[in-house]
Specification:
With 253 residues, the chain is an alpha/beta fold. It has nine helices and eight strands. It has an eight-stranded mixed sheet, covered by helices on one side.
């Protein structure tokens, strides 16, 4: 299988590395920034160009690993005839690609990816396609690089994207606020890391619903009031504390 990757960011880099590891032939990297394209191409030992260059027309598949906002722009310059083309966005319909080819789909890696990763974590892959031919192509590629592959339509991927924002993006933001609080109060944020890891590990074996702890689920109003007093100089955190506390109490009512 020969693949052209359009994009040079986090998703393009990690998927590119996985493809190379599993003998999928990347024949070209395309990026708006020629230097970024060159850097990734050198890492993957392949050819490269920018969006104004000549697209390799020998590929079996064209993979758009770019931001949601850039997808529409990419449709203007990519001329692939009837070749299969896919994007990697969780919250974008596969049908945005039908102007490029009758053979199109989605290859959504449900993982937080950074190009600097030394160790690539397990990546569930969610796929969808416009027809059986493209679906079989995506299944073949997905199973090469992942042990967890599922078919998911636009609605399912959108719902999973929302769930991912809550479980990953929002959670990490709370970590960041906790770190700011610790730094300003002169305490060691690193002391919280074993607790963070233990909580994350718990939900690999049990439902988050059954492992909730803390003053809110205990309805410990005295401790809650003490914590709110400590947050009097941190209005954003205080507001979030109140919202989260109310949500936990109402959830377990």
């Amino acid at each position: 299988m020969k693949v052209v990757i359009i994009g040079s960011g986090n998703v393009a880099t990690i998927l590119g590395k996985l493809m190379i590891q599993h003998n999928i032939n990347i024949v070209q990297i395309i990026s708006r920034n020629i230097e970024h394209a060159k850097k990734l191409a050198e890492e993957l030992n392949t050819n490269y160009t920018d969006i104004n260059g000549l697209v390799d027309d020998t590929a079996d598949l064209y993979l758009l690993a770019i931001s949601d906002a850039s997808l529409t722009e990419s449709l203007l310059y990519l001329n692939i005839h009837d070749k299969p083309v896919i994007h990697t966005a969780g919250a974008v319909s596969k049908d945005v690609l039908k102007v490029l080819s009758p053979n199109y789909g989605v290859f959504y890696p449900l993982q937080s990816l950074r190009k600097e990763m030394k160790i690539i974590p397990p990546i569930p892959i969610l796929i969808d396609a416009s027809n059986v031919y493209t679906m079989e192509l995506l299944k073949k590629m997905a199973h090469k690089i992942s042990d967890s592959v599922q078919i998911a339509n636009d609605e399912t991927r959108q719902k999973l994207h929302v769930a991912a924002v809550f479980s990953n993006n929002f959670t990490n933001h709370l970590y960041a606020l906790a770190e700011v609080f610790c730094n300003r109060e002169g305490i060691d944020f690193n002391l919280l890391k074993p607790l963070i890891l233990e909580t994350a590990n718990k939900i690999t074996e049990a439902s988050p619903d059954t492992v909730q702890t803390g003053p809110a689920i205990r309805k410990d109003l005295i401790t809650i009031e003490k914590n709110l007093n400590l947050l009097s100089e941190y209005p954003e955190m205080k507001s979030l504390y109140i919202i989260m506390t109310d949500s936990i109490i109402n959830h377990y009512r």
